[in-house]
Structure formats: structure tokens, C-alpha cells
Design a protein that fits this description.
75% of the residues lie in helices and 0% in strands. By secondary structure, it is mostly helical. The longest helix has 47 residues, at 72-118. It is elongated and about 80 Å long.
Length: 264
């Protein structure tokens, strides 16, 4: 559907609390097909959260092994095992959850369509009750529902949201899974890069754990800042928050490694 609103400009106007820019964003010429999850944007969530989980869990493994003062080779073995196993686990979970959500949505929509077709009076009464509960007068609610009742597809769309709280989801479960795994794997390798270099070039004087810590910290901050595309928060606050959360997880893993290092 082509709308006169330019969504990107409307969001920027809201961020700056600029009323004139907001009016311009809404009154301009159509900007094309508008979607809240258009193109690659619908996969941002899978990419960001897959990457965050990948780097945090892998660095937790690195920190635990470093705390136990084990050989760098063991860091690589455990770290790579974590990247593959946890990455696949997250990808499968993302695939199944997206697929299950869509199957549930389709089943509920079929039920709503059947009810609208075979018992429209009951569906109209439900909608009137929903709108009255929101503070709309019964007379106005009946007027609105009578209009909706003449357009069955729109009627079902509204019932899905108002009655069931279900929004449409056209994401690809397989694409979500692939994005999650690739993001998890790519970012999960960041804490291991220093250890890979040491294995390839043993004479290279690299402080492996310190280098891995710095690389992980920078990447965590960058991913936290990128998360504002989903949350809308300030990039600095979001980046620092993610750095803090990841740091706490790493500190806990390092502490356990120190405490239990004698068992290795």
C-alpha cells in the first residue's frame, strides 16, 4: 500500500520532537511501498540477537578457560564447539519458533474467517464489547462495527489484532534461521581470533586473553549500539548497557574458571 507518509522521516521527526518535520513527513508525496518490516530490515532482530548471543557465550568460554589457565588450544576447541553447537541450536530454535507462530496465526485466522462467515452476529457483538471496553460509546462502536462488517477481510484483520492480539508475520522461518546462525558464528569467532593467530604464528607476542577481551568489548558495544534499530533507544546507552551485561557474564565465567582451575 502506498502511503503519503515517509516512515523514515516520520521516525526522525519523532526522535527530534520536531512537529514541522513530522507534518512534512506525513504530507509529502507517496514514498513507495511502506512496511514496518521491509526488505532486509525484517531480519535485523535475528542478526543482532544471534550476534550478541554468539559473542557473549563464546567469550564466556574463553574467560572460563583463561581463568583456569589452560592451554590456548583448549580455548579454540571449546570455543569452536560452542560456536557450532550453540549456533545450530539457536538457528533451529529461531526456525521452529517462527514457524510455530505462523502456523498458530494461520489456524486462528481460519477460525475467525469461519466464525465471520457462519456467525457474524456473534463476531459483531464481540467487537462492540471490545470497543466499549476501550471507552467508546456503544452507539459509536455499533457504527464502526457495521462499517467493518461490510468488508470481511478487513473485519478479520481487525479481529485478529483486537480480539487475539495477533499481528501478521511474513518472515521466512528458514531465512531467520540462516541469519541467526551466520550472525552467531561470525560474531562468536571474534573472541577466538587472538588464539587463532597464536596457533598459526606461535612466535607472535600476543597477549591472547587481553586481546580477546578488547576485541569482544568493542564488538559488544557496537552490537549494542546497532540494537537501537529495534529498540529506538540512544545508541550510547544501548552500547554501554550491552558492554556491561557481556562484561558481567565474562567476569562470572572467569571467576568460575579461577575457582575450579585446580580440577583441570
Amino acid at each position: 500500500m502506498r502511503l503519503s507518509r515517509d516512515l523514515a522521516k516520520a521516525r526522525e521527526a519523532f526522535r527530534r520532537a520536531d512537529r514541522e518535520a513530522s507534518a512534512a513527513a506525513h504530507d509529502g508525496p507517496p514514498s513507495g511501498e511502506e512496511s514496518h518490516q521491509d526488505g532486509a530490515g525484517q531480519y535485523i532482530k535475528s542478526a543482532v540477537y544471534g550476534g550478541l548471543d554468539g559473542i557473549v557465550t563464546t567469550f564466556a568460554v574463553v574467560a572460563g578457560v583463561a581463568g583456569a589457565q589452560l592451554r590456548p588450544g583448549i580455548v579454540l576447541i571449546l570455543g569452536l564447539a560452542n560456536v557450532v553447537a550453540d549456533g545450530l541450536s539457536m538457528a533451529v530454535g529461531d526456525y521452529l519458533s517462527t514457524k510455530s507462530e505462523q502456523e498458530y496465526h494461520r489456524a486462528e485466522r481460519r477460525r475467525e474467517e469461519w466464525e465471520v462467515e457462519h456467525y457474524p452476529e456473534g463476531e459483531q457483538r464481540e467487537m462492540i464489547e471490545l470497543y466499549v471496553a476501550k471507552g467508546i460509546s456503544e452507539e459509536d462502536a455499533r457504527t464502526v462495527v457495521d462499517i467493518f462488517a461490510r468488508h470481511k477481510k478487513a473485519w478479520v484483520d481487525i479481529m485478529m489484532v483486537e480480539e487475539l492480539g495477533i499481528l501478521g508475520n511474513d518472515e521466512s522461518p528458514l531465512a531467520n534461521a540462516v541469519v541467526t546462525f551466520l550472525s552467531f558464528a561470525v560474531f562468536g569467532l571474534v573472541p577466538l581470533l587472538a588464539y587463532v593467530l597464536v596457533q598459526l604464528m606461535p612466535a607472535l607476542p600476543i597477549p591472547t586473553f587481553a586481546t580477546a577481551s578488547v576485541a569482544t568489548g568493542v564488538t559488544l558495544f557496537a552490537l549494542g549500539a546497532a540494537k537501537v534499530r529495534i529498540t529506538g533507544r540512544h545508541w550510547l546507552v544501548s552500547g554501554l548497557e550491552m558492554l556491561l551485561v557481556g562484561g558481567l557474564a565474562a567476569t562470572a565465567a572467569y571467576g568460575i574458571g579461577v575457582l575450579l582451575g585446580g580440577l583441570a
